[in-house]
Amino acid sequence: MALFLLLLLVAVVLGFIGVLAKGLFYLLIIGVVVLIADIAILGYRLRGRHRPR
């Protein structure tokens, strides 16, 4: 869970910097990619806990 929260924080910070700083739009794109990866990791971890026996 700590990894999820850390990656979420990184994605939000990169997104804000990408939006606010002129010419740093690529940071917004990186933030979105990190957010998508974070959601995928969370989904993988949650799905792994509910395996049928």
Describe this structure in words.
With 53 residues, this protein is mainly alpha-helical. Helices cover 83% and strands 0% of the residues. The longest helix is centred in the C-terminal third of the chain and has 25 residues, at 25-49.
Q: Summarize this, please?
A:
With 53 residues, this protein is mostly helical. Helix content is 83%, strand content 0%. Helix 1 packs antiparallel against helix 2 (25-49).
Secondary structure elements and their pairing?
Layout (H helix, E strand, L loop, with lengths): L1 H19 L4 H25 L4
Helix pairs in contact: 1-2
Helical amount among residues, as a percent range?
over 70%
Give a short account of the largest sheet: none
Q: Uncertain runs with pLDDT below 50, 5 residues or more?
A: none
Helix/strand-derived category reads mainly alpha
Q: Roughly what is the average pLDDT, rounded to an integer?
A: 81
Tell me the overall shape: elongated
> What's the helix-strand series?
HH
Estimated share of beta-strand residues = under 5%
Q: How many distinct beta strands?
A: 0
Rg (C-alpha, Å): 14 Å
Number of helices: 2
What is the terminal-to-terminal distance? 25 Å
Summarize this structure as a short list of keywords or feature phrases.
single chain, mainly alpha, 2 helices, 83% helix, 0% strand
